[in-house]
Design brief:
The structure is a homodimer of 239-residue chains.
Chain A: H1 8-13, E1 17-29, E2 36-44, E3 54-55, E4 58-60, H2 67-79, E5 85-92, E6 103-111, H3 114-118, E7 126-130, H4 141-158, E8 169-171, H5 172-183, H6 189-198, E9 202-208, E10 218-222
Parallel strand pairs in A: 1-6
Antiparallel strand pairs in A: 1-2, 1-4, 2-3, 2-7, 5-6, 8-10, 9-10
The first copy, chain A, binds a DNA duplex (30 and 30 nucleotides) through helix 6.
Keywords (chains A, B): Hydrolase
Domain Nudix hydrolase (chains A, B): 15-153
Protein name (chains A, B): NUDIX hydrolase
DNA sequence: CTAGTTATGGTCAAATAGACCAAAACACAT
DNA sequence: ATGTGTTTTGGTCTATTTGACCATAACTAG
């Protein structure tokens, strides 16, 4: 829908093209209110179709790499980032995704830590945008980002995704800010603290963060296996 | 793994082939203890690789059909079944999936009602098997079935998937048997009843099932929209 | 030393889940 | 006709969880 189906018969001749794209999420401390918010990098299209519109980073699937490797590679090439988390999102293959050629996109989604996101190069053709207010993107990429956001929100409530936004040591308030940024609502500090401390895989250190103008918070460490990601029988390395 | 990687370089030349497969679940009343159990149809491979092994039904993606349409079509062609539920499972694209050629499979999973499953043709090359005790299947299809089972169990606990195994009217005991077959454990009838009646989208009729040698159970009806399937921003028609 | 802010610990009531009990309603055998 | 066995249906009780809320601790800035 949205695109006239005049040349469906033409497109039907060509074999579907296979591409890999990635939705990359990072937290950036918004200058406005000082709280972290969700951002993502997009690349400007230099060719038709959708020339000059922003799109998800990605590219074709090389014959000698797995799907996840292809996602990591195209992510590395376009944005220079190395993800702390990478998971398949969905395979999009609607007939009207591209007006030129039938295209099947296997989309991944990724998280990067703030230190990584800090050294991400922003060029003429690579820009960062707030995930909650995006313009019209190329192809069906608005829908894809919405779906990735939905998955991220679901995963953060369940699993241990939040720590992939953070460094090795963190305060409980930082974890809470991740949740608040992802879920889009404020959480009660005391209740949040109680819940986090009831979960395993999170242990307290002897260190505190000094220098704030208030009571110094304790630092914690995440000890859960990175593989324990609630993906069922699919481990990380298995496709 | 398991297959020698002698000809990786050869395979690397050819473009990845794109196929659609489907894991189809149906409940069959097991002759042994009279309770329904999970079954799925498989097709026998008549060609190499994995000749004579059982495999998931599927086929190549035609250029003029969407992914979901391709899944429904190949499902229809191989087993003659029409699913009551159909959802994308995962895209598998490991390098060693097929010893002959690099292949990317976008896998769907489906549910069929018992009346549909009853008229499913069982031929020399199409057989039905219990989902919990499968032999060695072709390719990585054992892993795929395991993953589909995991997703099914998760969905049944959350959403309203169970009714896609049942007809338009059903007793609460039938719903409970679906849960028990999927989850693999017995549930307390009274507690299960209380939970179901607390959910919306399920209304009682005035009819009862007569003929049993016990108190006749009331028939219920599911009134929830078939679209309300907890797939986030992805509606049924979208991919 | 005081005010402001966050961290941390705690209470309380509502909602939920699980174990369990008991009566109702049928078929069947005697 | 009457009891027996089975399943349905309604109910209670307790432990656990969730969210709202309060209070104190510990720091900095003035």
């Amino acid at each position: 829908m949205g695109i006239g189906s005049a040349n469906v018969s033409e497109r039907a001749q060509q074999p579907p093209e296979l591409a890999i794209s990635t939705v990359i999420f990072a937290l950036r401390t918004d200058a406005g209110h000082g709280r972290p918010t969700l951002w993502l990098p997009l690349v400007r299209r230099t060719r038709q179709p959708f020339r000059d519109l922003w799109a998800l980073p990605g590219g074709p699937l090389s014959a000698a790499e797995s799907l996840q490797d292809a996602a990591a590679r195209s992510l590395q090439e376009t944005t220079g980032l190395q993800p702390s988390y990478l998971e398949q999102l969905y395979a999009f293959g609607g007939l009207d995704r591209s007006p030129v050629q039938r295209m099947v996109s296997i989309v991944y989604w990724a998280l990067v830590r703030p230190d990584e996101a800090a050294l991400a190069r922003e060029t003429e053709n690579v820009g960062w945008f707030r995930a909650d207010c995006l313009d019209r993107l190329a192809f069906d990429h608005n829908l894809i980002v919405d779906y990735a956001l939905w998955r991220l929100r679901n995963k953060v409530e369940y699993g241990s995704i939040a720590y992939d936004f953070l460094g090795p040591k963190f305060t409980l308030a930082q974890v809470r800010e991740v949740y608040e940024a992802v879920l889009g609502r404020k959480l009660d500090p005391a209740n949040f603290r109680r819940q986090l401390r009831s979960t395993p895989d999170i242990e307290e250190t002897d260190e505190y963060v000094q220098g704030g103008r208030h009571r110094p918070p304790r630092l914690y460490r995440y000890t859960g296996a990175a593989a324990q990601r609630n993906n069922g029988p699919l481990s990380q390395t298995v496709e």
